[in-house]
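Reopening this one. Same input as before:
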Amino acid sequence: MRRRILNVYFILTLFPITISAQNRVEENRNGKDPLELYFNRIKSDQILDTSYVVNQDSFLIKSTKSSVDVYTSFLVKYNYGGLKSLMDVTYASDTITISLDQLSIRMYDLTYDGALFYLDTHQTQSGSLRIEDCTFTGLFIIVDSKIEHDILFKGAQLNGELFLVGGESEIESLRILNTVFEMRPNMGSNLLHEYPNRAFSLIPEVDITHNPFEEHYKYPHYKELVSFEGSTFKKGLDFGGATLPERLILKDVRSNESINLTNTKRSLGSLRKDEFCKINLIGTDLSKLEFSYENFQLDIPEVIGNVFTFDIWNKEYERLLQHFKEIGQLTSYEKIDKEYREFIFTKDPRSGWGAYILNILNKYWNDYGYNKSLIWWWTAIFFIFFWGYNWLRLPHLYFKAYKPRSLHAIIDERSNTGQYHLYKGVEKKFNLRGLDISLYYTTIIFFGIKLDANNFEFNNLRGVLYVGFQYTIGLICLGYLANFVITAGVIGG
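Same output, byte for byte:
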């Protein structure tokens, strides 16, 4: 009982009670706080087991019974003289239904003009909340919720603020459809110190689509999916400093002011560092967006089965590239350009498996052209690989594949000492003395501008193909090295 009183007390400290000027003057004359007098009027034995009382302009709901009769004990109102039931036709007996095992709250065609509508589902275990075609003038608060299914606002009119606060909820989804907000919804607010922002940051799916928002919307934190598709914000949308969900849908969003996506955080702990928030901006005016692309990735379908869908996303990439180019955000431009190139290779339904190979080559060879210095690493890797293989197979390669004349004297000399058998072409003694010869042999082939055809043993086709492959890889590396040196300004200033 004490906790209930404290909860009410804290709410009332945040939201002033409407008391007539005459009463305020009289109470202040007596040196007493109006709020203190208010609690003195509400005796503990007057507060029903299944309800809280707030004041003449608001009510809150709480129940632990298996069912509640709305006419008797569920909705109560304080009228400076005692408690009484709200005997209004607006509150029909089937408007709100609560059961202990399966919470189900349904509100249809409900109009409430009070300053505060407070819903506390503290004792409930599961179920859903559906609010359709209802109008609430004051604040609408859902606190300490243990709803495990979904919360739905549909066709509602919220003239005050909406707060979803605290609890240990495992809500599957929050859907707000075709609902008018004259003030901002505040999901996950630290409104009550006893109900910190922990539960609603874990809602997997939040669908807030096709809603007109009259006031500035401050985005909280969610985990998996948030959708504002088709919504209109008259005073902007603010994600500044927010922790991003795994998917964010801003498709066909309209805003008279800016949509702030700056200083966002990428992970709630479940995402790896290389994962990004998947975002859909199709149909949204990019000039209204304030963001960089570092924490985002377009929400491309896993499989694009037709050219029409591919063209839609292709145009979206081109639109974003043009946008970041115009505003000079080169880092964002680079990231989305890499993403776009991978999209072209891997998502075009007209492409075959060869496009996937080209994507791998472009991605890891030089990062789609954005990291040309990688050629130094690739050159070293290929050279060391061929050097090692050539060292292991040097007698065979020298005698039966490619025999450069510049090595004849050295090979002849070492053959006479017993390291190599000159005529049979097989290794007689294996040691590290051949490393320098294999290094020279590899350098002649890998960095050779031209190979002498007279040095090939064409009877050994496999050996000839291997030497030719080594030579080709070396030429490619030399070409990219030359391009890097020239474009980096090492030569020619």
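So the earlier flakiness isn't reproducible anymore. For the record, Residues 300 and 313 are 7 Å apart (CA to CA).
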